[in-house]
Amino acid sequence: MEMPMKNRNVQNHGSGLTREADCAVLKALSVVYEEITPEELQAFIGLKQPERIDRLRGAVLGRAVLGKSKKSYVSLKASNLLGGKEVSYDILEFTAIWSNFYKEVLGITLEHPISIPGHKDGFDFLIIMAKGLTHKMISNVEVNLYSTYKYQSDLDNATDQTKEERTTKKSYAIWIQDSIEAPEDLKNVSASEIERRKLKTMTLLERRLLELFYYWTTKKHLDIDNWTLCAGSRYSDGYVPRTCWFPSDGRFHVGWCYASYSYSYLRARTVVSY
Q1: Is the peptide bond before 38 cis (omega within 30 degrees of 0)?
Q2: What is the pTM of this model?
Q3: What percent of the chain is helix, strand and coil (3-state, nearest 5)?
Q4: Rounded to an integer, what distance in angstroms lies between the CA atom of residue 46 and that of residue 124?
Q5: How many beta carbons lie within 10 A of that of residue 93, not counting itself?
Q6: CA triplet 167, 168, 173: central angle to 5 degrees?
Q7: pLDDT, tens only, 164-185
């Protein structure tokens, strides 16, 4: 499945965004904003009224994408989670990619605005969580793409919603490190220690969505050699979710462990969030 804009030609305009990126973002997002009429969009795409570029872009930046973020453009170098080829991306392009993913894979239209937290060095991959997204929605898609093992069949009921670091009561975004394996910075650190330090880490729903997104992008899987400790979540029985891909049985595993477990191969993924 081809990623949108992956092999685009780089042609910089004014603020550094490319016209192709502008068009893709406006196509994905303009339909929900009164500031951008179909006529204006067509004129922009047709290059008939280039003086409107900044105004149209501003409407999208101001209300559709960045929310509380003060930066309209962050140049990113993503490679691993976008298919292995290093490509420069910006926030608008990430949003367009996620909009396309949700529509094509999950049949969901992203609701806006989405508040995107400030970018932090080393955290160059953006995950957008759609309002109302559930484990069941992901499971319904997974079953047609790859085999899975789940500690509990109904993960929506199995997870303790009062213990979730973040929920999908509204759309939100997080930044993570661009790594196929869970990064080493939190290896040998238990969920209990993470909670004591008040670190922000990935939830089970976020990790499962990332697996689905990565498979959509590459037809490959994450965490072949290690487990992601989903310390941002808890099961209702108090255990902590953990996930990986088992090459030996060809399944994506959603397992469990005690909150006190700490091993070199068991690693939480740090996130940047509000």
Answers
A1: no
A2: 0.76
A3: 35, 20, 45
A4: 32
A5: 25
A6: 90
A7: 999 999 999 999 999 999 999 9
